[in-house]
Amino acid sequence: MKTAILDAQGRVTPASSKSHIIHRFFLTSAGGRLGIDFRYGPKQLEDLEKARTLIERSIDLYFEEETIAQAKAHFKSYLPLNNLITVSVDSPNGHLGAAHRHDPEQVLHVSRYEASPGLVCGDIVAGMWEVTLSLHAIVTDYCEYSLQIWQEEEAAK
C-alpha cells in the first residue's frame, strides 16, 4: 500500500539558476520504501535567438579574447540548451545520495534493500527528511516541476 507524503509543484525562472529548493517532510512511521516521482519541463530552449544570446554571453565570459569570434561563429555547436534540475535525498540519519540525471522525468526509490542509481540503501526511519532540487541551469523563460513522494511497504528479503 502506498501512502502519499508530499505533492508539490513549482515554477522557476532563469533567476533561480544555481540555487536549491528544499522540500522537507516528516515520516511518522519507519520501514518500507520511499518513492520519489520528479518531473520538469520544458527540457529545451526552442527559441534559437534566445539560445544564441545566452551562448554568446557565455562565450564573452569564458573564452579567451582571441577565440571569441570563432566560437560565436559556431554557436550552433553548443545547442541544444537544456534546463537541468537534479534530485538529492537526505534522511534524519544523513545523506542518501544524489540522482544527477539529465532526464526530465524520474522515478526514484530508496529502501533498506535497494536504491535507484546515485542513491544508497538505507533504513527508512521516522523523522524529518529532505529532498533537494538543485537548479543547475534554467534557460527557458520558466520551467515547471512536480514532485510526489510516497512511502510503501516493501517485501522482506
What does this structure look like?
With 157 residues, the chain is α+β, with helices and mostly antiparallel strands. The chain folds into two domains: 2-44 and 82-152, Jelly Rolls (Sandwich), CATH 2.60.120.380; 48-78, no CATH class. The protein has two helices and eight strands, in the order βββααβββββ. The strands form two sheets. It has a four-stranded antiparallel β-sheet with strand order 1-8-3-6, with no helix packed on it. A hairpin with a 2-residue loop joins strand 4 (84-91) and strand 5. Helix 1 runs antiparallel to helix 2. It is elongated, with a radius of gyration of 19 Å.
Task: Write a brief structural summary.
The protein has 157 residues and is an alpha+beta fold.
Descriptive terms for the model:
157 residues; elongated; 2 domains; Jelly Rolls; alpha+beta; 4-stranded antiparallel β-sheet
Total number of helical segments? Answer: 2
Anisotropy-based shape: elongated
Number of DSSP-assigned strands: 8
Structural class: alpha+beta
Please write out the topology.
Blueprint: E1 2-12, E2 19-27, E3 33-41, H1 48-62, H2 65-73, E4 84-91, E5 94-99, E6 105-111, E7 127-137, E8 143-152
Antiparallel strand pairs: 1-8, 2-7, 3-6, 3-8, 4-5, 4-7
